[in-house]
Each structure stands twice: as C-alpha cells, then as structure tokens.
Design brief:
Heat Shock Protein 90, 17% strand, 377 residues, 5-stranded mixed beta sheet, alpha/beta, Rossmann fold, 11 helices
C-alpha cells in the first residue's frame, strides 16, 4: 500500500510503552501513526498530522482526554473525526461524559489487538459511510434545487410581471381613469410577490454560506468569537413581532426568564428563531397556542418552540432539509424549505444542537441549544 493511501491514526497517550505498542501494532497492520504524550501535544499533532482517527487516553497531564475532545468537537467544530477513548477500568463510569461530548467509542485497558483493530475499522468504516451519505445528499440536493427553485422564482415573478403588465396596459391605453383603490391593491400584490422573491434569494444565500462554513473547522472557529448578551430580550421581541404579524398575540405563551450570554452573533440568532417561530404560527391555527421558552441546561442556553399545529409524520421528519416540502397544495406559502434547514445549521456551526419532534395533528416541538460564553476572569 502506498503511503498516501494509508489511514492515519493519532495516538495520544502519556504511558510510553502503551503508545509504542499501539503504534507498532498499527504500523504492522498498514496504518500511518503519530504519537503525542499529552493533550496539548496531541492538539498540535492534530493540525500537522491531520489524522483519520484519534486514539486518546483519558487521564493525562496538562490537558486530559475530555479537554482534547471538547476542543475538537465544540471549539474547532469538527463533528466527523472518529474519536476513541482509551480508559482504565476505574474510569469506565466516566465514559458517559465522554460519549456526551461526542466520543465515538472507548476501549478499556488492557485490550487485545483484535479489540483495538475492531474498534478502529468500525469507526473508519462508519466515517466512510457518513461521507458517502453526505455525497448522496449533495447529489439529491442538486436535483431538488433544479425543481424547487424554478417553481419558487416563477411563482413570485408571475405575480410581479403579471400585475405590472396590467398596470402598464391600463396606463398606455387610457381605457379607464385610474381607480386609486384598484391600483393600490395591484401595487400591494406586486410588493408581496417581490418580497417573497427577496426572502427566497436571501435564504438561498444564507443557506449556501452556512453550508460552506459547516464544512470548515477553521471558518467555524472564526464564527465562534461572536457573543450575544441577554438573548431573552431578542427572543421575546421576535416572538411578539411575529405574533402581531399573524394577529395572534393571545396565542403566544412566553417563558423566557432564564438568561445568559451565548456564543452567536445577534443576526444569526435572530434568523434562527425567526424561522422557527414563524413556522410555528404558519403551520398552526388561531386559538392554538405557540409556546416560546428558554432555560439554562449546564453550559447551554436552551430554547423550545412548541406549537399545536398540523405536525409532521415520521417520514416527513426524516426528510427535513433544504428544498424539501410537505403538503404543498395546502401550504403554498411555505417557500423552498430553506428556513428550517437554515435554523438547523445555525446552532450546528456555533457548537450547539438542533432537535425536532412532531406528530401529525398534535403539533411540533423544536429545540435548539447554544453554548454559553465562559465567564470573563
């Protein structure tokens, strides 16, 4: 096997004979290896060696395994690099914490060569499947774009061109005296169509940008320098603004008393919650409540948006994404399906999470978590 085809394994272990044995074994099996004696050195090797998988001890000087994993997953935003903990039997109970931070697997010392190779091959194979699925999704996305975007552009443009053509003909022929009310209604429809097209264009650009950022750990790290103080104020303002837009202020239920400073720009935060709260009103009826609440859960600022609307089936939940739409005939105003995709990506690129649960005719709950900014010393 040529060296460029070898899979690279980074071993972060402070016990020399263990790291040497693992390295020798893996080299014999056709892997390229690099060894670091603690977490700080491991992160340095991560940048220069660019491994396909990381084997990492839990207890180490300077920076332990949890710190390494947190740096990779939350700070650098790399959610795909396979990460396997090496743990002593006495540390086995701590592995729940590691799995919650994003570890893929763990091996309890002492482990056999078979166990080591099995864990490595499993994670590399799983990562390869994820990559293939991603490529398939991109291909599907291209196909969906070719269908959804032309439809949305044509719908908006037909309104703009059709009504503007009527106004021009009425003006040119002088057939009737311009009826101020009629002209006003036409102008109103033209504006609505133009606004729809503008929102679609802006969402397309935002989604494209977020998708590019999500594929780059460097860009995500740059993004996470932003801070938003007191997000509850913006959350409440957006919720009330949208409730007024839909003339449903009485349906809005607010529980946003717990506040924090979060790692996100105000524009991104506003975009995510606007899309989600707008959907809650759009896909529910007057008199059905829309609950918006916030809470602090460990180091995360947590938001729930709960409606009592039409809900979604399990199949629809599985197929949520850009340019995927449901019940198009009943909900023509839904756009190109970009809003929910954007709202899902925004927490992801900021080190947070997104979750949605729903059942048909029973409503939908969307939850997002954003990292709280560490307190200044």
């Amino acid at each position: 096997m040529r060296k460029k085809d070898m899979k690279k394994i980074l071993i972060i272990e402070d016990t020399d004979f263990i790291s040497d044995n693992i390295s020798t074994t893996l080299q014999f099996e056709g892997f390229e290896t690099a060894v670091a004696e603690d977490g700080v050195q491991g992160l340095e090797q991560l940048d220069s060696f660019k491994p396909d998988l990381v084997l990492c001890d839990v207890s180490m000087p300077r920076l332990d395994g949890f710190g390494v994993l947190r740096e990779i997953r939350q700070v650098r935003g790399d959610s795909t690099l396979p990460f396997v903990f090496l743990t002593a039997k006495s540390e086995k109970n701590d592995m729940r914490r590691g799995m919650e931070l994003g570890a893929d697997d763990y091996l309890t010392k002492p482990f056999t060569t078979t166990e080591l190779l099995g864990a490595i091959h499993t994670q590399l194979s799983r990562n390869e499947n994820v990559r293939k699925n991603y490529e398939e999704q991109i291909e599907q996305l291209r196909g969906n774009i070719s269908y959804a975007l032309p439809h949305e552009f044509r719908t908006a443009l037909n309104g703009i061109l059709g009504y503007s053509d009527i106004i021009m003909k009425l003006t040119e022929k002088g057939v009737i005296d311009p009826d101020i009310a009629e002209i006003h209604d036409m102008a109103k429809d033209i504006k609505a169509s133009g606004k729809r097209l503008h929102i679609l264009t802006e969402n397309f650009l935002v989604y494209t940008q977020l998708h590019a950022i999500h594929g780059s750990s460097e860009k995500m790290a740059e993004l996470r320098v932003n801070r938003l103080e007191s997000p509850n104020t913006l959350l409440k303002d957006v919720a009330e603004m949208l409730a007024i837009k839909y003339d449903r202020l009485e349906d809005l239920k607010l529980d946003v008393t717990t506040d924090s400073t979060v790692i996100i720009a105000s524009e991104s935060f506003q975009k995510a919650i606007t899309e989600l709260i707008d959907n809650a009103f759009k896909f529910s009826k007057p008199s059905e409540s829309v609950l918006v609440r916030s809470a602090l859960i460990e180091e995360y600022y947590h938001i729930d948006i709960v409606d009592e609307g039409i809900g979604m089936t399990d199949e629809q939940l599985e197929n949520i994404g850009a340019y995927n739409q449901f019940n198009r005939r009943e909900f023509e105003q839904q756009g190109a399906g970009l809003g929910l995709a954007i709202a899902r990506l925004i927490p992801a690129v900021h080190g947070g999470s997104f979750n949605i649960s729903s059942s048909q005719s029973s409503g939908t709950t969307v939850s997002i978590e954003l990292l709280c900014a560490p307190e200044q010393p």
